[in-house]
Every structure is written in C-alpha cells, then in structure tokens.
Write a structure and sequence with these properties.
Distance between the termini: 30 Å
Number of helices: 6
Shape: globular
Largest sheet: 3 strands, antiparallel
C-alpha cells in the first residue's frame, strides 16, 4: 500500500485519489450523495475531502441551476491534468503488485469482488 500512496505524489491522499478517480469517470460531475454512495463514505467525511481538493483547485462545486439544493462536484482542468498523470501510473502500480498472483487467483479474486459489489448494490 505504501507504494500505491507514494505514486500519488505529495498533493493527494488515497481518499482524495478515490474521489478524483470517480469524478474522472463522470465528466458531468457527481452529487455529494452519489459520490458518497460510490465511495462508501459518509457525507461528513466526503465534505472534508472535497474541501481539501477544492483548496488545491482540483475540483469545484457547482449548484444545480434547476434545483439549488443540489450541488455537483466536478473536476477542474487542473484536476483532469492531475488525473491524466497519476491514474495511468496508479494502474501500473496495481498491475505490478498483482503481477505475482496466478491467473487462477486473479480470476477468483475478481469473482469474489463481483459478488461483494452485487451485495453492496443490494442484488
């Protein structure tokens, strides 16, 4: 895990990276509730993470003009640039860490993670 954290550079923690990675997959941004559901964290924890990312100018908050009670979190240009640098490296780091596993072990792990995801989704 230390290797994965080191690859993120000094400006980003693992929870912050998780937020950025989710937002990178959602170009239109995500609401706080959708993001907290995807990351399995409380809104309170997420608020602090987003606050820090916003101070680094990696994300911004946008109020929904149709429903001012709803706020979207979106990547800034700086956030997209950061993701373009760190996500490929992070993917390589994970591949390197998993490289010692047999194909059978990886298949079993993937199947188990799929089952876990289905349980978490209520299926």
């Amino acid at each position: 895990m230390r290797d994965l954290r080191a690859g993120l550079r000094a400006e980003c923690t693992m929870p912050q990276f998780d937020v950025l990675a989710q937002l990178e997959r959602s170009p239109d941004g995500l609401t706080f509730s959708a993001l907290s559901e995807k990351l399995l964290v409380t809104a309170g924890n997420l608020t602090g993470i987003v606050d820090r990312l916003e101070k680094q100018e990696l994300v911004r908050r946008e109020t929904n003009p149709k429903d001012r009670r709803q706020t979207f979190i979106k990547l800034t240009d700086k956030g997209r640039e950061y993701c373009a640098k760190v996500i490929p490296q992070h993917t390589q780091d994970i591949a390197r860490l998993l490289g010692g596993l047999t194909d059978n072990t990886v298949q079993n792990l993937r199947a188990d993670l799929d089952k876990l995801a289905a349980l978490l989704d209520g299926k």
